[in-house]
Amino acid sequence: MATTDDETAELLNQLKRASGVNDEWLARWDYEAWRQWGRAMTADPDGPCPGAPDWMQSFIPHWHDVDFFCPLPCVGRVAYSEANWPALAVEHDDLTLSAELMGDTAPDVNAVSRAWAVARRNGGRPALTVSLLPAAPWGRAVTGAIEALYVTDVDEDQAGLITAILDRRPAAPLLVPPDGWATGPVHAWEWFIT
Fold first, then answer.
1. Reduced to 3 states, what is the DSSP secondary structure of residue 81?
2. Fewer CB within 10 Å: N-end or C-end of the chain?
3. Per-residue pLDDT tens for 33-54?
């Protein structure tokens, strides 16, 4: 569903009221990114994610799990995804990954990619939470803004190695992972927009 400029402007006014952001903040992104955000916000949550490439749809079945009033032009989100997002970004030129978009405290995307690989190589089950932001060419490309890395099935030494790679302390271990993602303790490294 396409949104008109007037509809996009009204949705942006709602975002400003809900999130406390201003026009200067919104101007950090191209207006077309916000137009894509408006399309996603008003789309059928059971349909495909507007703005995401066709090949990606199978990786983001619950894409509508988005806080549309987070002050980013997010068109979709996937939590606890065990897909190898770093490899997908290498294989597809319409996907770029970034952790830095989530704020000054985020590790760089190369560190996240290395940590994911180390966890997998050492028998762990890494998963990422990724917000999808529209990118040019509009409607056919996204930037995957990595919000967090979760790893289960690793011991404390392996978790320490991942901590060193990310150069950040993990959050408290998740004792009850959401959605039954893991049966044991989960080590969580989370960063959000600041």
1. strand
2. C
3. 999 999 998 899 999 998 899 9
Cβ contacts of residue 191 below 8 Å, gap of 6+?
Answer: 99, 102, 103, 105, 106, 107, 147, 148, 168
For 175-184, b where at least 16 C-beta lie within 10 A, e where not — what string?
eebeeebbee
Coil, strand or helix: which one is 190?
strand
pLDDT of residue 133: 93
Strand 76-81 with 95-98, pairing: unpaired
Between CA 33 and CA 169 the distance in angstroms is: 33
Looking at every residue in the chain, the average pLDDT score rounds to: 86
Cβ atoms of residues 151 and 125 within 8 Å: yes
* β 171-174/125-135 pair status: unpaired
